[in-house]
């Protein structure tokens, strides 16, 4: 994956995203759609993974058949909303290793503060896919990727549902080597840091906390 921004325009992704954006969509339906769209996005974010071949026997003859090469990839959820993307991706890549990064914003300094960090071993040898549905200001995503790099990650991709131009620019400046895969690039952020038109608070919508 070489482009910094990969906008997934597949019609199924776009249709499901519209259903998720609608304010009438219930928590149960939102969750189901999130699961489905995560699988479709997982397909895109894993594009170009290295393959090798393995000798197998089909009922007809032997062949050198393609299989994924290298260490199991690592999915890293940026808490809490990132967890909503995990289920669907794990359905498609059941052997992936999983990590978590928890950050909150200090109300005085406005800087992200880490409260949880647990990631798979040998991060330097894995493709690391960091997931967070909303790339808004980019502050927490940039901080999470800083931490992943400090832990040794060298090959990182970032997967989200919606991205604001501000967040994309911030990521490009801080981590130009980390491609972003997103289902949509929205118009802007509002004064509260919400993506416009967006879908509201992704965590609240998937966990039913509002
Ligand atoms: N986080 C959300 O959940 N929604 C936004 O619009 C921005 C950040």
Q: Could you characterize the architecture of this molecule?
A:
There is one protein chain. The chain is α/β, with parallel strands linked by helices and 210 residues long. Strands 1, 4, 5, 6, 7, 8, 9 and 10 form an eight-stranded mixed β-sheet that branches. α1 packs antiparallel against α2 and α2 (27-45) crosses α3 (83-92). The protein is built from six helices and twelve strands. α5 links the parallel β9 (155-163) and β10 (180-185). It is globular. It has a single domain (5-207), classed as Rossmann fold, CATH 3.40.50.2020. The structure holds uracil. Residues 81, 134, 136, 193-195, 198, 201-203 line the site of uracil.
CATH topology: Rossmann fold
Work out the strand percent. 25-35%
Instruction: Give the number of DSSP strands.
Output: 12
Helix content: 25-40%
Q: Report the biggest beta sheet as strand number plus sense, adding barrel if it closes.
A: 8 strands, mixed
Outline of the structure:
By secondary structure, the chain is of the alpha/beta class. The protein has helices at residues 11-21, 27-45, 83-92, 139-150, 165-174, 202-207, and strands at 5-7, 51-57, 62-68, 74-78, 97-105, 112-118, 127-131, 134-135, 155-163, 180-185, 188-189, 195-196.
